[in-house]
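Exercise 7. Given the encoded structure of a 255-residue chain, write a plausible sequence.
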């Protein structure tokens, strides 16, 4: 396993380069998935919400429309800059932003009513440590929500191989059972499981060699009729399309 500090720097380097295009990708703001995310979070008008690994602030800004106050934290300063840009464009006053590590959150115990993270655990070398921190800063009886890709056990290895070609900061996407086990091990009470597929076009900032390998993987699945990557890829008029297998797991923080 790569040294955690080195890996964190890899994340910062990658998402500094990707900050603006990542923020502008339509799939990150698609309405159906966001509605599921907000429903799972059960945000009230007085809720204090923390968005961990918030990226360009897409979930945080959506939550701010419902919450009393939202805090977003991300390890990449360029992502926080994009989040501030989004906040200003939407005219939202009830959000503050921090640069920091998901595994060492700079907040007091029980400081938030809702703690959420979306599309982050597959970047983390120690997702259990991040979940423990999310529990620590969530008040007793509060809601903790994780949204991420969850390949099947049969496709997990191929899925990880594909993601590493797209993004060298990827570590491993947990299966749904593995994600649920993290919650049990953290002493959390599971209150909701949801799942959906998110359609995407195979477009990436990967270098030419990695893009060629990616394309070959997808074309191999399409030609064989086998879904070895687990993303149900198909050839469309505008290129190769596929569907990310996403899960939402929500827990209640114990008293």
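Solution.
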């Amino acid at each position: 396993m790569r040294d955690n500090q080195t890996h964190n720097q890899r994340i910062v380097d990658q998402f500094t380069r990707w900050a603006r295009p990542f923020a502008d990708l339509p799939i990150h703001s698609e309405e159906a998935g966001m509605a599921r995310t907000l429903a799972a979070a059960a945000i009230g008008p007085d809720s204090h919400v923390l968005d961990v690994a918030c990226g360009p602030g897409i979930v945080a800004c959506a939550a701010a429309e419902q919450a009393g106050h939202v805090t977003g934290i991300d390890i990449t300063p360029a992502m926080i800059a994009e989040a501030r840009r989004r906040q200003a464009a939407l005219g939202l006053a009830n959000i503050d932003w921090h640069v920091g590590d998901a595994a060492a959150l700079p907040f007091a115990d029980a400081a938030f009513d809702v703690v959420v993270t979306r599309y982050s655990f597959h970047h983390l070398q120690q997702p259990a440590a991040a979940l423990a921190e999310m529990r620590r800063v969530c008040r007793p009886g509060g809601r903790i929500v994780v949204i991420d890709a969850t390949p099947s056990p049969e496709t997990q290895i191929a899925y990880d191989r594909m993601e590493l070609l797209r993004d060298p900061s990827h570590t491993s996407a947990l299966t749904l059972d593995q994600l649920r086990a993290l919650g049990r091990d953290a002493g959390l009470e599971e209150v909701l499981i949801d799942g959906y597929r998110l359609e995407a076009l195979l477009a990436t900032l990967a270098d030419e060699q990695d893009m060629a390998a990616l394309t070959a993987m997808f074309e191999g699945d399409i030609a064989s009729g086998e879904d070895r990557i687990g993303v149900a890829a198909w050839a469309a008029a505008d290129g190769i399309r596929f569907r990310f297998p996403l899960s939402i797991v929500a827990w209640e923080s114990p008293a």
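Remark. The chain is about 40% helix and 25% strand. Students should compare their own answers with the one above.
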